[in-house]
Amino acid sequence: MKVAKFGGSSVADANQFKKVSNIIKEDKSRKFIVVSAPGKRFDADFKITDLLIQLGHAYLNDEKYKSYYITIMDRFQKIIEELNLTEQLLKEIENKLKNTLTSDLADHDKLDSVKAIGEYSSAKILSAYLQTEGIKAKYMNPKDAGIIVEKDASGAQLLPESFNLIYKLRDEEGVVVIPGFYGYTNDGILATFSRGGSDITGAIIAAGIKAELYENFTDVDSVYSVNPAIIENPKEIRVLTYREMRELSYAGFSVFHDEALIPAFNAKIPVCVKNTNNPSASGTMIVAKKEEKEEKCVVGIASDTGFKSIYVSKFLMNREIGFGRKLFQILEEEQVSYEHAPSGIDDMSIIVRDSQLPDDKEELIVSRIKNELKTDTVTIHRDLALIMVVGEGMKETIGMAQTATVALGKAKVNIEMINQGSSEVSMMFGIKANGLNRAIKSLYHAFFE
Amino acid sequence: MKVAKFGGSSVADANQFKKVSNIIKEDKSRKFIVVSAPGKRFDADFKITDLLIQLGHAYLNDEKYKSYYITIMDRFQKIIEELNLTEQLLKEIENKLKNTLTSDLADHDKLDSVKAIGEYSSAKILSAYLQTEGIKAKYMNPKDAGIIVEKDASGAQLLPESFNLIYKLRDEEGVVVIPGFYGYTNDGILATFSRGGSDITGAIIAAGIKAELYENFTDVDSVYSVNPAIIENPKEIRVLTYREMRELSYAGFSVFHDEALIPAFNAKIPVCVKNTNNPSASGTMIVAKKEEKEEKCVVGIASDTGFKSIYVSKFLMNREIGFGRKLFQILEEEQVSYEHAPSGIDDMSIIVRDSQLPDDKEELIVSRIKNELKTDTVTIHRDLALIMVVGEGMKETIGMAQTATVALGKAKVNIEMINQGSSEVSMMFGIKANGLNRAIKSLYHAFFE
User: Fold this and answer.
1) Each residue's pLDDT tens digit, A9-38
2) Interface of B with A in 170-209 (CB under 8 A)
3) What residues of chain B lie within 8 A of the CB of A243, using their CB?
4) Surface of A (328-347) touching B: CB under 8 A
C-alpha cells in the first residue's frame, strides 16, 4: 500500500488533475491520495491558499473581499468545467466557503477553516474526477481519516492516538482521497498544520497505515545535488538517507521542508520524490539506510544566506567551567535559537539566522554577554552564507576536506569558518555571502564533474 | 627596568650560576632577578624541589628522611664551594631547612615552607655570588617584596593589593634577587604557587614594577615553530603575540605554562624567552600586538595527544532551544572541563582531555546525556590528537585551510575534525593519535619549508 501526495503545482489546473488521475490509475497500490490546494499555473499566478488567506482577513476586518471570493470561485469553476464535472460540485465548494465565512467560529478558528478550503476542494474535485474515470474513489474528511490534533501557535500538533485510528483506513475499499494541511481537535474544530502542511498530512497517513512507500509528487524530476538556480542541469540524486536529506534541506533545499517528513521518518517508511509532469522519471528515494555504499561519498551541496555570527572571546575561557552553559542560557532566556556554535580555546562563535537576531535583540544579547560573562570581546559578523557538503560516506573518506578547501581556494573564496566532525554526514563552511555562487560552482565542479 | 627570571636549569650548578651572573652584569637594566630552585644537571638527576617534597613527606610521616636531607645539602655545598662562597651561607641554608622541619606549622603549611627552600637557597646563593663579583646585589624575601597571597587548593592566589607594594621596589638600589614560587598570606604563612610558580613570581614582579621587559631565561634559544622532538632543528619564532602563545602552549608547547604569564600579559609587558646557555641568541619576544605584519601568517604548529570526544546526536537538535545549555550543564555539574565543542545541525561533539573523563565518569556522563536529553546517539571516540595551526594573520588569508588539508591528505591522515573560524588565531584539526607525527611533518613542510 502506497500513499501518494500531490503538491500545489500538481493540481493547479484541469490538465494537472488529469495527470494525477493517470498516475493513480497506473499503480493499483496507490490507495491513499493526499492533495494540496491548487498552486500557481505560471509565475505571476496566485496560489488558492494565499487568496483564501486574504479573503479571510478581509472578511474578518470588514474590508472588501468580493474580488478574492470571485477569483477563487472562478478558478474552481474553470477546473470543474474543464474536467466535465457536475455543477453540483461547484455549488458544494461555494456553500462550504459561504458557510465557513458566516459561521460563528472564533476569528482564529474561522481563518484556519477558510485557509483549508483549497485542500478540501482539491480532494472533492479529484475524487469526483477519478469516479468519472471509472476508478472506485472517495473523498474522506481528515476527521474521519483520524487526524486528531491540538492547536498550537506554531501550527496544529498531531496527537499520538491518531496513528491507531488511521491504521483502520487500511480496510477501506478503493482509492481514498484526503485533503492535506489540516486535522481536527477533539472538540471538532479544524486546525491547520504549519505551511507545507500537505506534506505533513501525507507523512502522517503513510506512518499511520504503515505504507510500503510514501510518494511525494512535485514538479521536479528529483532532488538535485545542488541548487539548479546556481548550476544548470545539476546531477540528480537517486538515493538519499533521512540524515542527508535533513542536512541538505536545512540549508536551502526547497523541494520540501524536511521536518514535514518526520512522521514518515520515525516510522521508517521510505519516501520517493517524483514529478507529476514526468512520472516515468525514477525520482529520488529517501530512506533510513542505503543498501549499498555509493561510489560517491558526497551526495549534495546545499547553501543558504542570511546568517550572522556572534564572536565571543575571553582569555582563559576554556578553564572557566560553566562558561558555555552560561552563554547558552542567555540565548535560551532571550529565545534565540542558534544553528552552530563552534568553540575554540578562548573563543566561541555562535551562528544564528538573521531572523533570530533582529537589531534590538542583537544589542541586548551583546550587552548581556559582555556584562554577565565579562568577556574580552563580543563582535557580530554579518552577511554570512553557510554551505553544507553532505554525504553519509564522508566520515571515512580521506581527502574530502582537501577537495572542498582546494575548490574554495580556486574560487578565491575566503573560508570564514569550517565545521567538520561534529556531524558525521556533513561538512560546513561559512563564507561571505557575496562569494556564494562562485563557491558553489567550484565545489560542484570538484565533487560532481 | 627589566625583570629576569632564571629557571631550574639556569641554576642547576655553580657553572650555571656564573652564566647567570654574567648575564646580569651585561645589562644594567636587569634589576630584578627571580630564580627557581636548582634543576637537573643531567637527565637522571633530581630537581631540588622534588627532593624537598620527598623530604617533607617522609619527615611528616615519620619515615626515613636522612638520605633526602643529605642529598639536598650536598648539592648546595658543592655549589657554594665551587662559587667560593662562605661556609656561613651553607649554614644559613641548613638552619633554614632544620628550623622549617621542626617548626610548629600545620602539616600543609610546613610542606609548602619546605618546598620553597630550593628557591630561597638559589636566591641566597645568587645574591651572595653577585656581591663577590662586585655587583651591588641583595636578597629579598617575597614577603618584603610585597607578594601577598591567599591559600587555595590549586596553589596560592595573588591578592591585588600586592601590585602597589611591589611598585615601591622601583626605589631599591642595586640588583634585587627574589626567590620564585611563593608568597606570604596576610598572617605571614608561606604559600607556594602551582608548579612552574617561578614563572608566576617573575610575571608578578614584572607587572608590579611596570617593567619594560620580562626576560624568561630557559635552556632553549627560542620558542620553536613546532615540537623539536618531531622535527629536527625547526624554525625559531622571533615574535609571538600573547594569543598565539596561548594557543600554542595549549596544545603541548612546553617552554612554559602560558597561564604563568597572565600577570605580565594583563599588564601588557613584553616577555622575552632567552637561553642562559646562549644569551647572545635573540630569543623569542611575546607581545600584546605585533608592530609589523609578518610575511608568514602561520607562526607555529602545536599538537597534543590524550583527547577523546563525546559525540551526541539527536534528530531536530537545532530546533530544541536549550539543548546546548542542558548538555553543558551536565558537564558542569560533573565538573568536566571541555576543550572544544563543535556543533552541527543535529549533532554535537565535545572534546575533552582523557584526564577529565576517567572511565567511571565517562559512563556516568554518557548515561546522564542519554536519559536527560533523550538523545538518539551518544558515542565516545578515543585516542584523538589535536593539532593547532596558529597565527594572527590567518583569518584574512585565503587558502590556509587548503594548505593544511592538502598537507594532511598527502600524509594520508584522515581528518576527524576541523574547527576553523571560532578562533581568530588558530585552526584546529582532530586526527587519530597514531597519525600525529606524519601529520606534523607534512604540515611543517607545507607551512615552513
Assistant:
1) 999 999 999 999 999 999 999 999 999 999
2) none
3) 346
4) 328-329, 331-332, 335-347
- The structure's pTM equals 0.81
A36 Cα to chain B: minimum distance (Å): 25
Contact B426 A345 (CB under 8 A): yes
DSSP code per residue over A248-304: HHHTT--SS-GGGGHHHHHTT--EEEEETT-TTS--EEEESS-SS--S-S--EEEEE
Compute the Cα dihedral for A194, A199, A205, A207 and give only its sign. negative
Q: How far are the Cα atoms of A23, A33, A220 from residue A26, in angstroms, in the given order? A: 5, 13, 19
CA pair distance B54, B111, nearest whole angstrom: 10
Give the best residue of A257, A266, A333, A345 to mutate against chain B (max B CB count within 10 A): A345
Q: Grid coordinates 499520538 are at which residue?
A: A160
CA distances from B67 to B8, B51, B87, B93 (A): 22, 10, 21, 17
Q: Is B80 exposed, middle or buried (CB count within 10 Å of its CB: 0-12, 13-18, 19+)?
A: buried
Q: What is the DSSP letter of A47?
A: P
Any chain A CB within 8 A of the CB of B423? yes
**Partner-chain contact A341 B341, CB within 8 Å:** yes
Q: Do B421 and A415 touch (CB under 8 A)?
A: yes
Q: Which residues of B touch A250 (CB under 8 A)?
A: 318, 345
Interface with chain B: mutation pick from A338, A418, A425, A427, highest number of B CBs within 10 Å: A418
Per residue of chain B (449 residues), give pLDDT as tens. Answer: 999 999 999 999 999 999 999 999 999 999 999 999 999 999 899 999 999 999 999 999 999 999 999 999 999 999 999 999 999 999 999 999 999 999 999 999 999 999 999 999 999 999 999 999 999 999 999 999 999 999 988 789 999 999 999 999 999 999 999 999 999 999 999 999 987 789 999 999 999 999 999 999 999 899 889 988 889 999 999 999 988 888 887 766 665 667 788 899 899 999 999 999 999 999 999 998 887 766 678 999 999 899 999 999 888 787 777 888 899 899 989 988 887 777 777 888 888 999 999 999 999 999 999 999 999 899 999 999 999 999 988 877 778 889 999 999 999 998 888 888 777 788 999 999 999 999 999 999 999 98
Instruction: Determine the length of chain A.
Output: 449
Burial class (CB in 10 A: 0-12, 13-18, 19+), A381: middle
Mean pLDDT of chain A: 92
Residues in chain A within 8 Å Cβ distance of B400: 415
Write out the H or E segment, with its range, that includes residue B124.
helix B117-132
Q: Which residue of B has its CA nearest to A247?
A: B345
| Residue A245 forms contact with B (CB below 8 Å) | no
Question: What is the C-alpha to C-alpha distance for residues A398 and A395, in angstroms, rounded to an integer?
Answer: 8
The CA-atom distances, in angstroms, between A349 and each of A9, A311, B317 are 41, 4, 18
Give residue for cell 471570493.
Answer: A69
A378 inside 8 A of chain B by CB: no
**Cα distance between residue A231 and residue B100, in whole Å:** 80
* Cα within 13 Å of Cα(A24), Cβ side: 30
Residue A408, chain B, CB below 8 Å: the answer is: yes
For A43, the 3-state DSSP assignment is: coil
CA neighbor of B7 nearest in space, from B219, B153, B206: B219
Write the residue in B265, B332, B347 that is nearest to A322 by C-beta: B332
Cα of B267 to nearest chain A Cα, Å: 14
* ipTM computed for the complex: 0.75
